[in-house]
Amino acid sequence: MSKTRFSPFTILLIVLGLFLAVFPFVNDSRTMLILFTQIFIFSIFAMSYNLLLGYTGIVSFGHAMFFGLGAYAIGICMKKLEPGWNGVLLAVLITVALCAVLSFLVGILTLRLKSHFFAMLTLAVAGLLMVTAEKWRSLTMGNDGFTFRVPDLLKDRISLYFIALVFMVLTYLLMRRFTFSPVGKVLVAIRENEQRVESLGYRVLNYKIIANVVAGTIAGFSGILYAVSLRFVNTSVFATEVTLDALLMTIIGGVGTLFGPILGAALIEIAQHGLMDLAKVHWIFERWVILFGTIFILVVMFFPKGIVGSALQWQFKRKNSQKATLDKKERSKAATH
Amino acid sequence: MTLLKVDAIETYLGQYHILQGVSFEAKKGEVTVLLGRNGAGKTTTLRSVMGLAPISDGVITYNNKPIHKLPTYKISNKGIGFVPEDQGIFNDLTVEENMKVAMKKKDDVTMERLEWILKLFPDLKTFWHKKGGYLSGGQKQMLSIARSYINSNDLLLIDEPSKGLAPIIVEKVMRSIQEMKEKTTVILVEQNFMMASMIGDRFYIIDDGKTVHSGDMKELKEDEQLKKQYLGIA
């Protein structure tokens, strides 16, 4: 009878999944519940960014534009319509349509350019959306933003926790399926050598646009969840800091790894929360951005592949050295015989 | 019958005028060898044919149709395979994935070709699930060549397949090109004259970005003067 063997990583994921499933029932702290919900939401956002940066090699400074579109879509739908499920569904449809069209248009106009020009142009488009949100006060209330009501199920912190968790797991599975598919492999090949992929007969631009549309739409979903969790939206959802957060989460967790952005999001959200709490101990912790900057520099210097990437590399080296030792032993055994 | 005709092409790389009138023809079923010293413009010629270094003047025709204004992917899809000098292996993809990314079709013919390739380069089968980045230089070259063999291309452009490889691997690679010759037309850029002369049918010597000599490979083998003048072979 054959035994099914799980890898240590799969076991870790199962344990983590079980922990997250029972956490709301054993934990009384509302703050922790909100913190975990934020981690799930930013994990989704970081995973979408990782598809661009980690798998396709596209650097975008304007990924927040999709996050913001999702946040405003749900906010406006809930404000203008009854706060029911029809409004939520409409917001989802609007987000998918707007994010897909915008990412397609931005992609077709800018992805032909070299990476740094693309990065600058995405920054400009995100800036344009932010200014539009600021100036279109009748719809967005400008910088002040607005609060909105949501269906009762989404008001409940535990329900929202599970909805965000399910979406995070679904995004992870979708990313896994996508990056393991032939299209995903072409994206990795593009990241490594664009000209070579072109000379194999692929129209690179088409594949980059596919990555941009998928990443943009997923980022829109995370924006919806973010706005629902706060029941408030203002122009800060379009800010460059939101994109930079995703960049940090991806790089610290592990660029081009599936689990890296989740770990990165968890570390950054927990650190942010913990450091703000420490402000009572010393004023330096109020300036947590400075500490973040230092951590970021150290990670880039000593773990350029991020935590998950470095762990995978270490595991690979360990396996290889074990194999080499075994080979050596076998050779010396054979020589003595 | 001429499959590819390159007529007086000129190519600039940045401000440098690299190709200043390269012309040659590749006849169907033959191995055409481009020879010349380092920096003569052989690699740029192949890159220009693929559209990777666009030409500023001249004409390139494939099956009597101009291709020099087409983007690289369209040139490739016309049935032209390219093995670059730097091998162009995707380091983060396994050998299997490298091969699959290169496959244009997944029909029975392609699977038969894959079987033939794996018999030709058994090392690739051994390292089938290993990432490209962990292969040795020779294995990378084999993978690069294997990738170009997987499709039923009518023309193969191979840039310096023996560069930096151990003699035993060079022999293997050259034997594979010889076998491939029966299935497709080959344009080969090669510094190793011994190897090139063994498999080449026709030669063109490129010097300072211009074609300066051409002829039958048998003639070149016997012309010591020409070899000394352009290839530095005493």
Write a structural description.
The complex is a heterodimer of chains A (337) and B (234). Chain A is globular, with a radius of gyration of 22 Å. The longest helix of chain A has 31 residues, at 306-336. Chain A has a two-stranded antiparallel ribbon. In chain A, 41% of the residues are buried. In chain A, α2 packs parallel to α8 (157-180), α9 crosses α11 and α12 runs parallel beside α15. Chain A has 2 domains: 30-304, ABC transporter involved in vitamin B12 uptake, BtuC (Orthogonal Bundle); 311-337. Chain A is built from 15 helices and 2 strands. Chain A has 337 residues and is mainly α. Chain B has 234 residues and is α/β, with parallel strands linked by helices. Chain B has one domain: 3-Layer(aba) Sandwich (Rossmann fold), CATH 3.40.50. Chain B contains 10 helices and 10 strands. Chain B has helices spanning 42-49, 72-77, 95-102, 108-120, 122-126, 137-149, 167-180, 193-199, 217-222, 224-231; strands at residues 2-13, 16-27, 31-35, 55-62, 65-66, 80-83, 155-159, 185-189, 202-207, 210-216. The longest helix of chain B is centred in the last third of the chain and has 14 residues, at 167-180. The model of chain B has no long low-confidence stretch (mean pLDDT 89). The A-B interface holds A 182, 185-186, 188-189, 191-193, 195-204, 256 and B 50, 52, 71-73, 75-77, 82, 84, 88, 90-93, 97, 100-102, 104, 147.
